[in-house]
Amino acid sequence: MQSRIILTPPTRYGLGWRIYGNVIAAFPQLMIIGYLVLGLIMLDKESPLPGLLFLLATGTALLLSTFVVLPFFGGYLLLARDYGPGDRGVFCQISLTPRRYAGLEGVLDDADDFGHFYIDGEYLAFRGNSTDVLLHRSAIQSVNFRNIGWRAYWMAGNSADVYLVQPMSGVWSFNLAAREGATIIGTRKAADRFTAQVEEFLRTYNPTQPPPVPFA
Question: How large is the average pLDDT for residues 106-132?
Answer without folding.
Answer: 86
